[in-house]
Amino acid sequence: MTEAGEGRDVARLLRVLAVRAFVLAVFAALAGLTTVAMALALVGCGLLFARSR
What we know:
Mean pLDDT: 90
Low-confidence stretches: none
C-alpha cells in the first residue's frame, strides 16, 4: 500500500471515530450527563480536525 493510500485510510478512520464520539455526546446529553457530553464533543472535534501525516 502506498503512503498516500495509508494517509487516506487514517483520515477516514479519524472521521469515523469523530462521528462516533459526536453520537455518543448526543446520547450523553440526552441522558443528562452534560460533562461527559462536553468531553465527548471535544474529543470528536479533536479527531475531526486532527491532521494525519
